[in-house]
Design brief:
By secondary structure, the protein is α+β, with helices and mostly antiparallel strands. The chain contains nine helices and eight strands. The chain has an eight-stranded mixed β-sheet with strand order 7-6-1-2-5-4-3-8.
Length: 235
């Protein structure tokens, strides 16, 4: 499946020129939530860019810093994010590398995120999941159970964020997301938390799951405290 022509033109029109140039020159793939938001007419979000190698992404990130005169870059093991005043952040995804757009969109955990745009053979091209448009229109979360390296609770935290924006998920898809979390837990190997009292099996499980959730979303305020960015550099 592909984006329809008006939506593809809209994605290109709403992507900054400097980013489009990088996509053309370096073979970068634009994919994920930014495309969904443009198609739906939702508020703009970060732009996520992918490539076959980290070197390509790093070179592109530095080029964008120069083009925009950016003053901040946030580096994590997942991505380099370029910040510039008056512009939406651009993320160069370092953790997952893709040599082609089809593999890129297959890696996303929800079909509503499975959309990509790239430049090849002198023209702009696109690809989407078969149910991309239907799921976007109904705000339905369909879980894909992707085969990729990721934190166990990553998709669960994303469900939480989608629900806060008015999306919905049925029991079968929520169960699949939960299964990804539970499959990573060896309950018998879990040590008792400090405290000196005997915890129930359910309480121990809750303790482990809460740790997985906080691990994957460390910037969420915890106990009234804001977590700091992992590495926020001045350029």
């Amino acid at each position: 499946m592909e984006l329809n022509s008006p939506d593809l033109r809209r994605v290109i029109r709403m992507t900054p020129k400097a980013v489009l140039n990088l996509m053309k020159e370096r073979g970068l793939i634009l994919a994920g939530g930014a495309i969904r938001n443009i198609v739906r007419g939702d508020p703009a979000s970060d732009l996520d860019l992918f490539a076959a190698t980290q070197e390509t992404l790093k070179d592109a990130a530095h080029q964008l810093v120069r083009d925009w005169g950016a003053d901040r870059i946030w580096k994590t093991e997942n991505a380099w994010t370029v910040f510039a005043q008056g512009r939406h952040p651009v993320q160069f995804i370092m953790r997952w590398k893709f040599g082609n757009p089809e593999d890129c969109i297959k890696s996303f955990d929800f079909t509503a995120c499975q959309a990509a745009v790239w430049f090849a053979d002198g023209r702009w091209l696109s690809a989407t999941a078969k149910s991309f448009y239907a799921d976007c229109a109904s705000r339905r979360l369909t879980y894909t159970s992707p085969e990729r390296e990721e934190e166990a609770a990553g998709s669960m935290m994303r469900v939480r964020k989608f629900l806060a924006k008015g999306w919905h998920i049925d029991a079968e898809n929520l169960a699949a997301v939960m299964a990804r979390v539970f499959a990573k837990i060896d309950l018998e190997a879990v040590e008792e938390p400090d405290g000196g009292w005997q915890h129930s099996k359910e309480a121990r499980l809750a303790f482990v799951i809460s740790g997985l959730l906080r691990e994957v979303d460390p910037l969420t305020p915890v106990d009234g405290l804001e977590a700091a960015e992992e590495k926020d550099e001045e350029l």
